[in-house]
Amino acid sequence: MIVGIPVYNDVDLLDVAAPFEILKWMDPNIDIRLIAPKPGRITARKGGFTFEATHGFDDVPAVDVLWVPGGDPAALKRIMSGPDGAYLEFMKDRAGNAKWVCSVCEGALLLAKAGLLDGYECTTHWFFIPCLKQIGSPRVVEGFPRFVVDRNRLTGGGVSSGLDEALKLVELLTDYATAQGVQQNIQYYPCPPVASTITQIDTCQFTF
């Protein structure tokens, strides 16, 4: 099984690291490929943390799972309407034969721009829900779900939602008991020391 994660400068680190970690606990031999136009160093959002894109677009002709991470709005704009448009073509092409097409956080905006969420129920980071509604014809789920499954589309909310979403992907790829085992191994029983609420945003704050 090949899991392809297209990465780019200013990507959200946890959007990449969460599925990588959780899927490796599911199966340490799973083939997870961090993909960019060409292999090389990637600097995550907020600066400083770097990692390697291990594969170029041409090195990965097909994937079983496509997982699209979110990132800084300026990086999204470069992909959606700027010089990095090859990412959209890569997503469109590889999604065609993928068993699962996933996004977390603002990665849903990239899927939507590629036309891969038209007619599908989906979600994204709460702040970018108004933006997602403006791109193509996705069926954005009201409220702030951690993840949404619609046929072979799996989309997640903001950043940390990728943990829940990746566990759901484990269940979808295997079974409930396997997902439980991963949860136990990584001791994922969240109990945050703070509590807050999300305020609905009605207007997209960015131009993509």
Layout: helices, strands, pairs:
Blueprint (H helix, E strand, L loop, with lengths): L1 E5 L6 H14 L4 E6 L3 E4 L6 E4 L1 E2 L8 E4 L4 H9 L4 H10 L4 E4 L3 H7 L7 E2 L6 H5 L5 E2 L6 E4 L2 E4 L4 H13 L2 H11 L22
Parallel strand pairs: 1-2, 1-6, 2-5, 6-7, 7-11, 8-9
Antiparallel strand pairs: 3-4, 10-11
Number of structural units classed as domains: 1
- Approximate helicity band: 25-40%
- Share of residues in strands: 15-25%
Q: How is the biggest beta sheet arranged?
A: 7 strands, mixed
Query: Structural class, from secondary structure content?
Result: alpha/beta
**CATH first level:** Alpha Beta
List low-pLDDT spans: none
Shape: globular
State the helix count: 7
The run of helices and strands is EHEEEEEHHEHEHEEEHH
Sheet with most strands: strand arrangement: 5-2-1-6-7-11-10
Oligomeric category: single chain
Rg value: 16 Å
Distance separating the two termini = 33 Å
The total beta strand count reads 11
Q: What is the CATH architecture descriptor? A: 3-Layer(aba) Sandwich
Look at the structure and give the mean pLDDT. Answer: 97
Look at the structure and name the CATH superfamily.
Class I glutamine amidotransferase (GATase) domain
CATH domain fold name: Rossmann fold
